[in-house]
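Entry 12.
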Amino acid sequence: MIRSVRRGQFEGVMPIPEEVSEQFVSLLTMHQSQLKGFVFSALGNRDDAQDVLQKTNLTLWKKAGEYREGSPFLPWAFGVARYEVLGYLRDRNRERERVVFHTDVVDMLCDIADTDMELWPDRQQALHRCLESLDDETRHVFAMRYADNLSLQQIAETTNKTIDAIKSLMLRTRKSLKKCIDKRLATTEPN
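Predicted 3D structure (tokens):
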């Protein structure tokens, strides 16, 4: 049996905020694949990404009144998704489970999200290529930090280096990756 739905209620399950416009629903629907890709890129696990995407959609729905029509939707939605991903990572860290990416990487993804979305696949490919170009030791340290989510102290102990040396290496590597990505993108852009 189908019950009628009135504004403010959805079958008694999910209140529909008065502020939700057709444009908002259209934008949210249109950008699902980008949101899904963003969350998956940050978590690396489809099931986890699907859970976080659902929570992100719920939060976006609840915050629909905060979105200003006519302003860029995707950066705003990515900002909400970023907080959902960070919350998920924080909760997983509390449970001492393995996390694929550290919050710094999520921040890097958010910076990328603020740029033209047409460059997203190119940026991902450039990042992948630039990571491949790192020397083995640097790639290993980077993987310990961002794939294995080890603390700087743990990395220092594992590699027999000081924490300051690890911090310095990480900073140089992030700067180097940014330069490499920018250079690769500059050579692929039409003049």
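Annotation: The first helix runs from residue 22 to 30. The domain at 17-99 is CATH 1.10.1740.10 (Rna Polymerase Sigma Factor; Chain: A).
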